[in-house]
Write a structure and sequence with these properties.
The complex is a heterodimer of chains A (285) and B (280). Chain A contains 12 helices and 1 strand; from the N terminus they run αβααααααααααα. Chain A has 285 residues and is an all-alpha fold. Chain A has one domain. The longest helix of chain A is centred in the N-terminal third of the chain and has 31 residues. Chain A is elongated and about 70 Å long. Chain B is of the alpha/beta class. Chain B has 2 domains: 216 residues, Rossmann fold (3-Layer(aba) Sandwich); 41 residues. The model of chain B has no long low-confidence stretch (mean pLDDT 88). Classes of the chains: A mainly alpha (285), B alpha/beta (280). Chains A and B meet through helix 1, strand 1, helix 2, helix 3 and helix 6 of A and helix 2, strand 5, helix 3, strand 6 and helix 4 of B.
Chain lengths: 285, 280
C-alpha cells in the first residue's frame, strides 16, 4: 500500500537549492563552515573572555609588577614579558581553543552528525583553521596594542622584522593547533579537554619564559621549556618587538632564529602525523 | 544481489567484548517503505542502525544500503542518506536557520532551508538560537538537518523518545509526509503504538536477533487469538480465555446478575510483542 501511495502522492520536490546534483568540493564545504564557526565562537562570552582577555590581563599584571629596567639597558622586564605573552595568546586561541571545541563537538555528537553528511574531515578542519587564524590575528592585534601602548614595544620597522614576525606567528599557530587537535582526542568531553589543555598550558608558561623571564629560570626548567613550541615562539616575538641589544639577555646570547624555525617546524610535522593517526569522529568503535 | 531493496542485511554480527549485541541478523527494507525496528532496550536496535548508517563497524555479515557497503561507502552515498541520531546536544549558539543553512551547503542538491524548517514546523522559531528550543523542537531540527539533503533513505534512531503525546502525533504526520514524498524510512523505536501507527512492516528484535518481521496487523495474529473475559465476583477476579465470549457472558449472567467490572479483550500488538521477546 505504501509504495502505491508514494507513487500516487509524490508531491513535487520543487524546493531545491544548490548548483546541481554534483557534490560541492570538500574545500567549498569547508569554506561554508567558516562563518558559522566564528559565530559559534564569539557567541560564547565566557569563552571569548577566557581566550582573549586572559593573556592581555596577565601580561598587564606581570608587566606592571616587573617594572624595573634591566641592567645596562633601557628595557624593562615588563616589556620582555609583554613581548613574550604573545606566545601565550596564540597558545590560547589555537591549542586551548581547538582542544576544547573539538572535544566538545565530539562529545555532543555534533561531529558524528557531520559524519552522516558529505562533509569530510578536511572540510571540518578548514572551518577550524580559519577560526583559529581569525581569532589568533585578533588576539595578536590586542596584545600588540597593549604592548606598544603600555610597555613601549616597537613594531618591526623593516621588512625582515615583519617577515620574522609573520613566520613565527604562522608556524606557532600551525604547531599549536595540531597539538590542540591531538589533545582533543585524549579528552572525553569539553570539561576534561579544558583540564588537559589549560593544565599543560599554564605549566608551559612558567618554563617557556612568558610569565617569568628565561634568565630567572633554573637550568632544568629551561631545558624542559626548550622542548616545546611556546618557548621558541616567545623568543621569536621578542626578537622583533624588543631592541636588538636585548639578545644579550637570552640564554644563548642570540635570538636563535634557525632553532626556532626547526623546532616549530618539527612540532608541526609531528603534530600532523599524530593527528592523522588518532583523529576519530566519535567515541564508537 | 537484489537491487529492489533499499537495505539488505545477511548474517550481521557485532559483539562488544563478551557481549553479543547483534547475532546473525537478516533484514530487508524495500524502497518507499516505512520500516520499524522494534525491541526492548539492549536488543541491538541502535547497534544495527548505526552499522547501516556507516557509523559503526561490523564484525561480520553482508550489508548493502542503497546498493553500497556502508563501511566503505563514500561522500556521494552519504549525500543520499539522512541520519537523525539519538542524541545531539551541541551548545546551540547558532540560530535554527543558520544551522540548517550550514548543513544545506554540504549537498549538491538540497531543500531550501526555510522550506525544510516549514516541513518540520519550525519556521516560526527560525531566528531563535538552537539552545532556546524545547526538547521536541530540537528533535524536529535534527529531522530538518536529516532531510535537508533530500535523502532517498532516512534513518531515525528512537526519534520520539521524550515527546509528549501531541508532539509525537505531529511527528508521525511529518514522517508520513516524507514517506509520501518517496523517502524510504527506517526507524528504531521501543514504542509499540509508534510502530503500529507508522510502519508498513515491523522487525521485532530480541537479544540481537530478528524474532519476527511482518505488518503490525499480522504480528498481532502471532499470538492466540482467543478473547479474554474478566469480571469480579465475590471479591475475586475471574479471568477466562474463550473463543465465544458472548456465550460465556450469557451463561454467567443467566440469573440477571450484573458482572462487576466486566471486560472482554483481544490480544494486542503489545501481547504479540511481549510474547515474541519472550516476556509472556
Amino acid at each position: 500500500m505504501d509504495i502505491d501511495q508514494a507513487a500516487r502522492a509524490a508531491p513535487p520536490r520543487h524546493a531545491v537549492t544548490g548548483s546541481g546534483s554534483s557534490l560541492p568540493t570538500p574545500l567549498r564545504i569547508g569554506l561554508s563552515r567558516v562563518v558559522p564557526e566564528l559565530k559559534m565562537f564569539y557567541r560564547r562570552p565566557e569563552q571569548l573572555v577566557l581566550t582573549f582577555s586572559m593573556p592581555a590581563v596577565i601580561g598587564i599584571l606581570l608587566g606592571s609588577i616587573f617594572s624595573t629596567k634591566l641592567p645596562h639597558s633601557d628595557t624593562s622586564t615588563g616589556a620582555v614579558i609583554a613581548a613574550s605573552i604573545l606566545a601565550y595568546g596564540i597558545l590560547s586561541t589555537s591549542f586551548i581553543n581547538l582542544g576544547i571545541s573539538i572535544a566538545a563537538d565530539r562529545d555532543t555528537g555534533a561531529l558524528r552528525r557531520l559524519r552522516g553528511t558529505p562533509t569530510t574531515a578536511s572540510s571540518y578542519f578548514i572551518g577550524k583553521i580559519f577560526l583559529v587564524a581569525v581569532a589568533s590575528l585578533a588576539e595578536a592585534i590586542v596584545l600588540l596594542t597593549v604592548g606598544v601602548l603600555v610597555f613601549k614595544l616597537h613594531l618591526p620597522t623593516n621588512a625582515f622584522g615583519w617577515f620574522t614576525l609573520i613566520w613565527v606567528f604562522l608556524l606557532g599557530i600551525i604547531s599549536c593547533s595540531l597539538l590542540g587537535i591531538f589533545v582533543s582526542n585524549l579528552a572525553s568531553n569539553a570539561v576534561s579537554a579544558a583540564v588537559v589543555t589549560n593544565g599543560p598550558a599554564v605549566a608551559l608558561q612558567f618554563v617557556s619564559g612568558t610569565y617569568v623571564p628565561l634568565m630567572a629560570l633554573p637550568t632544568w626548567m629551561l631545558t624542559l621549556g626548550s622542548v616545546f613550541p611556546v618557548k621558541w615562539m616567545a623568543q621569536g616575538f621578542r626578537s622583533v618587538l624588543l631592541p636588538a641589544d636585548m639578545a644579550a639577555f637570552e640564554p644563548a646570547g642570540s635570538w636563535e632564529h634557525w632553532s626556532t624555525f626547526f623546532v616549530l617546524t618539527a612540532w608541526s610535522i609531528g603534530g600532523l602525523i599524530a593527528c592523522l593517526a588518532v583523529f576519530r569522529w566519535s567515541d564508537k568503535k | 544481489m537484489n537491487q529492489s531493496s533499499a537495505v539488505q542485511v545477511r548474517g550481521l554480527s557485532k559483539a562488544y567484548g563478551q557481549l553479543r549485541a547483534v547475532c546473525d541478523l537478516d533484514l530487508d527494507v524495500g524502497y518507499g517503505e516505512i520500516f520499524a525496528i522494534l525491541g526492548p532496550n539492549g536488543a541491538g536496535k541502535s547497534t544495527t542502525i548505526e552499522i547501516l548508517e556507516g557509523n559503526r563497524k561490523r564484525d561480520s555479515g553482508h550489508v548493502r544500503v542503497l546498493g553500497e557497503d556502508p563501511g566503505t561507502a563514500g561522500r556521494s552515498w552519504r549525500a543520499k542518506i539522512g541520519i537523525v541520531l539519538q542524541e545531539v546536544s551541541d551548545a546551540g549558539m547558532l540560530t535554527v536557520s543558520e544551522t540548517v543553512r550550514m548543513f544545506a551547503k554540504c549537498y549538491g542538491r538540497a531543500r531550501v532551508p526555510d522550506e525544510a524548517l516549514e516541513l518540520v514546523g519550525l519556521a516560526s522559531v527560525a531566528g531563535s538560537k538552537v539552545r532556546t528550543l524545547s526538547g521536541g523542537q530540537r528533535r524536529r531540527l535534527d529531522v530538518a538537518l536529516g532531510i535537508v539533503g533530500m535523502p532517498d533513505l532516512l534513518f531515525l534512531d528512537e526519534p520520539t523518545t521524550g515527546f509528549d503525546p501531541d508532539a509525537r502525533r505531529r511527528f508521525w504526520d511529518l514522517i508520513r509526509l516524507l514517506a509520501a514524498d518517496g523517502t524510504t524510512i527506517l526507524l528504531t523505536t521501543h514504542y509499540l503504538d509508534e510502530a503500529a501507527a507508522l510502519a508498513n512492516r515491523v522487525a521485532v528484535l530480541a537479544d540481537g536477533k530478528v524474532v519476527a518481521v511482518d505488518s503490525p496487523a499480522k504480528l498481532t495474529g502471532y499470538v492466540n487469538s482467543a478473547a479474554t473475559v474478566r469480571w469480579i465476583e465475590g471479591d475475586q477476579l475471574h479471568e477466562e480465555e474463550t473463543d465465544h465470549p458472548t456465550e460465556l457472558i450469557r451463561q454467567r449472567s443467566q440469573a440477571g446478575a450484573e458482572l462487576a467490572q466486566l471486560t472482554v479483550s483481544r490480544p494486542t500488538l503489545e501481547d504479540a510483542y511481549l510474547h515474541l521477546i519472550g516476556l509472556a
